[in-house]
Fold each of these.
Amino acid sequence: MKTIIVYIALAMMGLCTQFLMAQEKNIVEKVEELEQEKKEIIRSEKEALKKEVEAINEKLAKEELTIEKANGLKEEAAKNRALNIENRIAILNNKIELLKRNGSEYLTGEKDEISLRIGNGGGNDDILLDIKIKNDKNKKIKYDKRTYSNAVVAFGLNNVIVDGQSLDDSDYKIIGSRFFEIGWAWKTRVFKNSNILRIKYGISYQSNGLKPTDNRYFVENEDQTNLEEFRIELDKSKFRMENIVIPVHMELGASKAIKSSESIRYTTRHKFRIGLGGYVGANISTRQKLKYKENGERVKEKIKRDYNTSDLIYGLSAYIGFSDMSVYAKYDLSTIFKDSLVDQNNVSLGLRFDL
């Protein structure tokens, strides 16, 4: 046992010696690099001064400068370049002194590792001591991953833009007509080391509801769908289109960088943001719900049919908000009804939450 302890002590002494020698070698190599950098500074500043003097001489030859003015500019340029050399070399001299005085604490470079394994010669199963010394102070900082995902929920008021008609004269109730949207979105920052601009894209389910005014409901007459008055008093008349769409937005806004010794993370909480873009998708369902009382009985009708609605849905959308909540607006460029004599386009305004 004593023999093993002696071996371990000797090995530890050897390990420390190897480590110190490796660090000393790194210091010497770094000092040599800095000395070479000093020579490069002198060379580059002299080359820059030479070009400045040549430019002054060209202006002098073109009589754009007097001899006195040219000599003054040359003297000033030489003085500036001399000060540049002095200041830049002083910085390198300070680095050299820090390295010589403090050693590895001020080294920069790749991670070093010294490993020692002690055994009795019987293979990996007979290892008595396994020591590793690492210097990972200069571990590369990891930036935040480029893409995150989250749920999106939006809801609010819904209505229709009709050619030659204002919303004040709408055929649909302002408060009773509503929209709802739920989906999943991915957000990818455009720039590698900045989060100022992001692309937001995903897939969403949209439900656009309309409540006709004046006791009317939708009637499908061949390729035309029109509002007509119902034969008796309606308790409820509601028309709904359901869509699956792919929204894409360019999102612009500030974010906070959370920095640590190992990583940089970005967050948009408590920050303003604005998104501009659009969506494209398909109509998956159109239905109408009617409620009324007839012959003393309450009747509920749920009618699901085509109603000549557009199959392809596309439009523009935008949002502006703070943190996870935004004011949200969308406008269908596609018309509600394919062959309608008057174009009718769905429009929505409400709140959006990126959860």
Amino acid sequence: MKIGILSDIHEDAERLEAALRLLEKRNCDELICLGDIIGFDVRHYRYLAKRDASRCVAMVRANCRLVLAGNHDLFAIRKPPRANGCFVFPENWYQLDFSERKKLGEDRIWLFEHQELSPLLSAADRDYIDSLPEFLMADFAGTRMLFSHEIFPDPSGSLTWRPKNHWDFRQHFHFMQENRCRLGVSGHLHPDGIGIVHDTKFHFSHFRAHAIPLDLVQYVCPCMANSASRNGFLILDTVRMTMEAVALKSKPYRVEGFR
């Protein structure tokens, strides 16, 4: 069985269409989207004229059986995350004005009003995003897997904190073990290729196939949108037990202060 895994689409309908064509050619049996379908940040992306959040939602709904909400998706519908172990969101979080949320968040929470364009979603799009979970577990070929946009305790990626080494994955690995998951996949970090995490190492590797080890492992999916990082997606082969990072033919560009 081949499972295609997409993450961080960010309203890039052109790249999503290209990725879906490639996944079809690669004979994937199942497609999973790890979130951030929405979210066009004017500092980081350059496809303003071609962005189409509603079309991206429609394509994801039509092609992906398992879909998660990322931090940008939740922001688009002004919905605080359900799962978060580091910050208690007030029930009226999005009724508070920007300055009050900034004060309460103390730069720990992503606030996008000053940099993100409205996605122009329909009511049906909003209802669909509202229905999405922030993480899920599934069994494929006898292996229990955890899928999330970011790692625990922040599976939606709503915190500004980012993991820097394997120690930062301890809580995530503990959650995986508690739920008998041997393999985890997340997005959010926009790696140039694929991120691979074991209990002793966190590193980034090239776009190619990687043998899945027998012990606990976490993979970080590349960003699918055209950005400062090389973009692509993952293919999990449960017969060969490989995780392949596949590159899209988009030239990355550099943005000052962002990579």
